[in-house]
Amino acid sequence: MKVIGLLLAALALSAAVLASMTFVNESNDALRESNHWQHLESEKLSLGSLYAQGKLDRTGKRRLAAVYRQDGELDKSAALLRALWIEPASAEDFNRDAHELASLYSEMGAFDSALESYRSILAFNKKRLSFGDAQIGRDLSNLAVCQYLKACCQSEPLARRKELQKSLSLYLDARRFIVSADNLTAESRKQMLEVIDDNMKLARLDL
Asked: pLDDT, tens digit, for every residue of 36-85?
């Protein structure tokens, strides 16, 4: 009986240890993070192999670019997005990929390249949209924000001032488009103008 009791106690202890290990695995953020990066690496290798074989569609290429970006390989992500951007695409695809590329360039601190992308988006939308479309105002506002970020990175005061003035000019243009846009609700117009006005105040303070 004593032996059986010891065996039962040992089994109970083993079960408790297993339960504890399961709890630790499920609740430990560090372990989950490790699994995340392992999964990311596996996905990168899988998608990279398909891309090398020419078997990825536009959605797959976007996902590979996103995986590269998450893994800190920003140059690879940018190269893939830029290749996507110049491929023939629908208006929606063009805007989506150009915005993603511009955002990535900004993250990299490559503001001139980001500005190039935002200007291309603006020129593209001006050609296809009516003059009163709010999207043009949004494009101008995005361009102004990027111009402001570039200004903040200038160490030389005169260069900084010049970039801030460009940013303010773009914000004013964006504001005019939003005020006259014919496809906005009153509430959306108010919210967008508040954001632009707040950004302009910040730029003026820095100026």
From this structure: 778 888 888 989 899 899 999 999 999 999 999 999 999 999 999 999 88
Alpha-carbon Rg for the chain in angstroms: 26
Q: How many residues does the chain have?
A: 207
What pTM was estimated for this model as a whole? Answer: 0.76
SS3 154: coil
Instruction: Locate 29 and state its tokens.
Output: 């953020």
- What does each C-alpha distance from 9 to 1, 4, 17, 21, 119 come to in angstroms? 12, 9, 12, 18, 72
Sketch the domain layout of the chain as residue ranges: 37-104, 129-207
First to last CA, the chain: 87
DSSP assigned state of 163: H
Token representation of residue 189: 């117009």
